[in-house]
Amino acid sequence: MQLSRDTLLKAYRQMSTIRHFEERVQEEFAKGGIPGFVHLYAGEEASAVGTCLHLSAEDHIASTHRGHGHSIAKGCDVERMMLEIFGKKEGLCAGKGGSMHIADLGQGMLGANGIVGGAPPLAVGAALAAKTLGNGSVAVAFTGDGGSSQGTTFEALNLAVVLQLPAIFIFENNEDGESTGWRYAVGSGDIAARVRGFGLPSVKIDGDDFFAVYEAAGEAVARARRGEGPSAIEVETVRFFGHHSGDPQRYRSREDVLKLREERDCIKKFRLRVTAAGLLERAELDAIDRENAALIERAVARARAAPPPEDAALLTDVYLAY
Amino acid sequence: MALKSIRQAINEALFQEMRRDPRVVVIGEDVAGGAATAGERDCAGGVFGTTKGLIAEFGEGRVIDTPITESAIMGAAAGAAVAGLRPVAELMFCDFLGVCFDQIFNQAAKFRYMFGGKAKTPLVIRTTIGAGRGSAAQHSQSLYHIFTSIPGLKCVVPSNAYDAKGLLISAIRDDDPVVFCEHKLMYDLQTEVPDEPYRIPFGEASVVREGDDVTIVALSRMVHYSLEAALALAREGIECEIIDPRTTSPLDEETILESLERTGRLLVVDEATPRCGLAVDIAALAADKAFAALKAPPKRVTAPFTPVPFAPSLEKLYIPSPERIAAAVREVVGYRR
């Protein structure tokens, strides 16, 4: 598949933004200042970006607890995301949602989600709205290997097929559901094949390879836009950080993680490929990295200095007070 | 007696009951952890460490890691219970009740009555409650009032390690479904806990502090906040009696009513939301059965009628504080017709 120079640059910029964002959130979390806990997406960037490059703000995505990457790829404002993660008033959800509930309806981002398997039915609903309204938009459900076994996910897959909805199910298989290996939790040992049983096209691809994701997602989105129904993609990927910040990760060794960073880095692989093919220059990619570092620096500085929500915000947006 | 944390007390109760009765099994997500990874088996031992070590002694057949699949966990545990096991099923956060409620309230809770008294469902659902960790709207709720409202379920809400051990052993030996609610912020809280197994019967409240001016009924973490408030109030000459019901279903009405006969004033402190909850329930009990003794309207201190907010400043406001409890007590004590 031939990608334009602009698309390649955009892809790299977004993946690099996510990586810089996540590495920095991890640092800031360790330093203190970020409340609660965060689930980081570093290592999986190609999945979000390769998919969302085919989407516009009119299309919807529903995400997981590991939602920062999906949010950035879908066009959420990075500074306002950081403000939200720090629990500040100007955050995307006014500081009331936090990392696990970042949402931006204006960008078609239906929210990160604290419930495993929460997203697929919601995306099916967005796809139903698109089909009913006839507006040509599509909806993507991001789920993990863990979420692939939830009943809600099975029901959503079936409903999408029954109603022939413009839905795309992306199963990001990052190998571990919390501390349980996917080979234990997915009884059949093959998420893509299991999904196929619901009656929709379902492929398994190498999530380290941005181009593979981009191509598969492109086909699935085009199919949905043509009114040919739902598709699914299992993206084989890895997470560089633990399940959440502070996860001691005793289910894998430090060496294993370092090896993942060496051998399974989708961004590193993208760089090698585009520079070797002479499509982009190393210098322009480095410049993008520097811009992203500055962007994240600004976002963190702003988030740290920003005011928390006013106390009165506790009682707003609940329809009723008692 | 040794000091033990709530985490240790629960772990000890599970070890002892599993040794005593081979029908007791533990099932849930990451109750051991590390399955099919290159790393350590039992690396989680439950996300709060309460089931740590069980798999080494009892094996994978009785310490059952599951996929992320709450409906199947709860339903399988209910089915196994009627078929001869005594499962202790873990619902990692009570918020996940939303995923699996049918198997709990339409299935497990109904069997005994609906089948004409023929079914026994010795099922324990261990779950976690409580705000205060910045875990936001879907990992911070206190939903025991929902369990309490369902006929066919018993509901335990312990506030200390001694009670946690004795009540969990009672729950495991009970022939009906019991939901056991552990507060996430209290796992490290220590009290003296006997090494040997013991049972605390359901429906027996604990009088945590004696006093003649006002009766405070509080659950879980709110027992400790009420104690803090009571200490401050004692310096002002107000003596609070604090009652911890320990089980919300069955509820020990008698201990509450006896106390009200003496104090004539009621404050209920509950970390859950205000509508249709324990605070309303116990206030109604007072109005119904202690009306003549009341010197002031029953008062409630609860979370507001909102989801749990993320920002720490808002979350702090959300959770009833010792200061709010003390202020409410002053109001009740100062009430004049």
Description:
The complex is a heterodimer of chains A (322) and B (337). Chain A has helices spanning 5-31, 45-52, 68-73, 78-85, 119-133, 151-162, 182-185, 191-196, 210-225, 254-263, 266-276, 282-305, and strands at 60-62, 139-144, 167-173, 176-177, 180-181, 202-206, 231-236. Chain A has 322 residues and is of the alpha/beta class. A 5-stranded parallel sheet of chain A has the order 1-2-3-7-6, with helices on both faces. Chain A has a two-stranded antiparallel sheet with strand order 4-5. In chain A, helix 2 runs parallel beside helix 9 (210-225). The mean pLDDT of chain A is 97. Chain B has 2 domains: 2-193, Rossmann fold, CATH 3.40.50; 206-333, Rossmann fold (3-Layer(aba) Sandwich), CATH 3.40.50. In chain B, the strands form 3 sheets. In chain B, strands 3-2-4-5-7-6-12 form a 7-stranded mixed sheet, sandwiched between helices. Chain B has 337 residues and is an alpha/beta fold. In chain B, strand 13, helix 10 and strand 14 (299-302) form a beta-alpha-beta unit. Chain B contains 12 helices and 14 strands. The chains are: A alpha/beta (322), B alpha/beta (337).
- The count of helical stretches of chain B stands at 12
Main beta-sheet strand count, sense and barrel state of chain B? 7 strands, mixed
Q: According to CATH, what is the class of chain A? A: Alpha Beta
**Between the first and last Cα atoms of chain A, what is the distance in angstroms?**
59 Å
Give the amount of beta strand of chain A, in percent: 5-15%
CATH topology of the largest domain in chain B: Rossmann fold
